[in-house]
Amino acid sequence: MGYPDTFEGFMVESQDNWTEFTKKEFKPKKFQERDIDVEIECCGVCGSDVHTISGGWGGAPMPLCVGHEVIGKAVKVGDKVTTVKVGDRVGVGAQIWACLECKPCKMDNENYCPHKIDTYGAPYPEDMGGVIAQGGYASHIRAHEYFTFKIPDSIPSVEAAPMMCAGLTVYSPLYRAGTGPGKKVAIVGVGGLGHFAVMFAAAMGAEVYVLSHSPDKKDNALQLGAKEFISTQDKDWDKPWAFTFDFMLNTADATHNFDLAAYLGTLNINGEMHHVGLPDKPLPEIKAQMFTPNGCKMGGSHIGNRPEMFKMLKLVEEKKLKPMIDPVEISEAGCKKAVESVWNNEVRYRHTLVGYDKVFKR
């Protein structure tokens, strides 16, 4: 049938064969008055994609088209859309709908809406079509305008794409923690999330320290704006840094292997270790006594809100920030290559799938 009745995407049929992608048609949600259809130009490859299709986070509805770091052109807008017009270059991130009526939504915390719909793998209610949301390894995506964001002209699409999830996921907690001049911020891990976090925290004016078990990433960390690179492979690495960091953002995917007491001990009085890396395995055993030597705390967060998305894009535009992106041509083989690269921790530091016009024959 084709657009607008069906979209076309690269889909995984089974978590048992999660690196095998097949190009096929799927039915989008019902088009409603605040919806926007986006013809996709490119899409970032997020760790969430790999966790989902591999079964690391549990079961998922199959077949599934993942991808929630979408950049493209608005080709259709609903009658009540006011923020985007046809032809605008826009982005869509990891959330595609919220009720906008509940307490969190009214407080600009729509990313915590109990009724939220994720960009892929989530069921739409019957009045929206009753289908499963499908993501951005596809020809088009249909999104509510509140979760569709105009992209500044100065930010290339291939760089803007991973900002839609990875960028926002680290910017939001940094912003809410008051990151800026006079603050010492530790970033744990230099990967897709971590490299954005280092770059943003430095651009916001903080003194940035990177904690990593990969010494080969030191030069990149310093290039991104870190003042110091601390190798957590070293014996007693934490001792010289006791009571140092006001805020620690953990972007790593291997927290189950951490000596949490060592990390917490580097926090200043009432400092926070904040988790945005969401590994497959549970955290190590935690005892209440681990928090008492410095009155520290632990927390976590889920992406960010609409105002924070625009603040992040403004920071990128004003500071001329350039993430480290490795583009991959979208195809069955390209999707396979990209997710395997993320799984094997080979990408430096984010893949963006490109070449959509050729593959979807525009």
Describe the overall structure:
With 362 residues, this protein is α/β, with parallel strands linked by helices. The chain is built from 10 helices and 17 strands. The strands form 4 sheets. Strands 3, 4, 5, 8, 9, 16 and 17 form a 7-stranded mixed β-sheet that branches. A 6-stranded parallel β-sheet has the order 12-11-10-13-14-15, with helices on one face. β10 (184-188), α5 and β11 form a beta-alpha-beta unit. α4 packs across α5. The chain is globular, with a radius of gyration of 20 Å. The protein starts with 6 loop residues before the first strand and ends with a helix.
Keyword list:
globular; alpha/beta; single chain; 25% strand; 362 residues
In brief:
By secondary structure, the chain is an alpha/beta fold. It is 22% helix and 25% strand.
How is the topology of this model organized?
Elements: E1 7-12, E2 21-26, E3 35-45, H1 47-54, E4 70-77, E5 89-92, E6 95-97, H2 103-106, E7 117-118, E8 140-144, E9 148-150, H3 157-160, H4 166-176, E10 184-188, H5 192-203, E11 207-212, H6 218-224, E12 228-231, E13 245-250, H7 260-264, E14 267-275, E15 297-300, H8 306-319, E16 325-329, H9 332-343, E17 350-354, H10 356-359
Helix pairs in contact: 4-5
Instruction: Give the count of helical stretches.
Output: 10
Question: What's the SSE pattern?
Answer: EEEHEEEHEEEHHEHEHEEHEEHEHEH
Q: How helix-rich are the residues, as a percent range?
A: 10-25%
What is the typical, i.e. mean, pLDDT?
97
Strand content: 25-35%
- Low-confidence parts: none
Distance separating the two termini: 15 Å
Most strands sheet? 7 strands, mixed
Computed over alpha carbons, the radius of gyration is 20 Å
Number of strands: 17
Which structural class should the secondary elements be placed in?
alpha/beta
- From the spread of the alpha carbons, the general shape counts as globular
